[in-house]
Design a protein that fits this description.
The complex is a heterodimer of chains A (104) and B (250). By secondary structure, chain A is an alpha+beta fold. Chain A has a domain of 68 residues: Ubiquitin-like (UB roll) (Roll), CATH 3.10.20. Chain A has a three-stranded antiparallel sheet with strand order 2-1-3, covered by helices on one side. In chain A, a hairpin with a 7-residue loop joins strand 1 and strand 2. Chain A is flat and about 50 Å long. Chain B is an all-alpha fold and 250 residues long. Chain B has a single domain, classed as Up-down Bundle (Ferritin). The longest helix of chain B is centred in the first third of the chain and has 29 residues. The chains are: A alpha+beta (104), B mainly alpha (250).
Chain lengths: 104, 250
């Protein structure tokens, strides 16, 4: 990207990062597949098409600026997730679901 | 060579030569994403080449294959537009060359989907989707770079000035075009100029680029009469393996 060899400047001159979500042919929701750099949303969409859907992986693409994602803090893992650890009864696996219902 | 064979060879040589030129960027793109996009486009074009030259070889009926035509002919037998054999230059010039061709290519293929020859129409129908994307992508980059920084603007204007004299050849028809138009209803190049102008000029304006004066057009690519020196150098690289190891396969 840059020829000036200055790392501080190089970081600033990179295109912004985008997260890519793709809905597969039979998938029902978009899944995160990776990230890429692009100058704007239109270019991010095209780059996502070229980088991630070359082998007909998807029928729909979302791109989101990475800075727009608020992520949970890894150090909060305990309070965030551990309380659900011993509550298996919250998994609705004890019900018989008729076949005609299809995918849930 | 029959008119049909010449016509198909022109279509296949256009995609072969541009496809090879774009493949020269592989591993050298200015960003990972652009590198992949250029390689994808190159692969699309080589795929189209297999279909056009495959058909040309069959129509010719001399027992040759698409590979024989691609790797076994010398400069004077190539029928591609001069624009496409021009060296890549910088990234801007590569994009400008694609942009000028893509919009012509798109109009051409749209017309070819309507021809009475079912195989030609079928190839065009497959290719036109790929090329619609190529045209969209190159247009976006022309605007982004033309209306970008001072340096990117200068490079894009230089590219346009340098390549403009090669634009005219795309729209000069000859007896082969007339014959295929009469026989199959293939598009006549002269008729593509107005819709090409309608597509390309507003994008160049949006890119803040100035269309050069003058209608001078280098010719001799599609007739094979006068290729630029660049094609020979390109073929030397492209055909080296097959010439050193004829029929090599893997």
């Amino acid at each position: 990207m840059t020829q000036d060899g200055n790392d501080m400047t190089a970081a600033k001159r990179e295109w912004p990062l985008w997260e890519v979500f793709i809905r597969g042919q039979h998938g029902m929701s978009h899944r995160h597949v990776g990230s890429l750099h692009a100058a704007d949303a239109a270019m991010a969409m095209k780059n996502a098409r070229d980088v991630y859907t070359r082998r007909y992986e998807g029928v729909s693409i979302w791109v989101v600026p990475s800075v727009q994602i608020t992520a949970s803090n890894p150090s909060d893992k305990g309070p965030m997730f551990d309380p659900a650890d011993d509550k298996t009864y919250r998994h609705p696996t004890f019900f018989d679901i008729p076949d005609d219902v299809g995918a849930m | 060579m029959s008119d049909l064979v010449t016509y198909l060879t022109r279509l296949g040589d256009n995609t072969l030569v541009l496809g090879h030129r774009l493949s020269e960027w592989c591993g050298r793109g200015p960003a990972l994403e652009e590198d992949i996009a250029l390689a994808n486009t190159a692969l699309d074009l080589i795929g189209q080449t297999q279909m056009w030259l495959g058909y040309a070889a069959e129509a010719e009926a001399k027992g040759r294959t698409a590979d024989d035509l691609a790797m076994g002919r010398d400069v004077w037998d190539f029928r591609n537009l001069l624009l496409l054999e021009q060296p890549n230059g910088d990234f801007g010039r590569t994009i400008m060359r694609s942009f000028l061709f893509d919009h012509w290519h798109l109009l051409m293929l749209r017309g070819l989907t309507q021809v009475s020859d079912a195989r030609m129409a079928g190839i065009a129908a497959k290719a036109v989707k790929e090329v619609a994307y190529h045209a969209d992508r190159s247009a976006e980059l022309v605007v982004g770079l033309g209306d970008g920084t001072e340096e990117s603007h200068r490079r894009m204007q230089d590219a346009l000035d340098r390549l403009w004299p090669y634009v005219g050849e795309m729209f000069i028809g000859d007896e082969v075009d007339a014959a295929t138009a009469a026989e199959f209803g293939a598009p006549v190049p002269d008729m593509l100029r107005a819709p090409w102008d309608d597509a390309v000029l507003p994008i160049l304006a949006q890119a803040t680029l100035t269309v050069p004066d003058g209608a001078f057009a280098h010719q001799g690519g599609k007739t094979g009469a006068r290729h630029t020196e660049h094609l020979g150098h390109m073929l030397t690289t492209m055909q080296w393996l097959h010439r050193a190891y004829p029929g090599a396969n893997w």
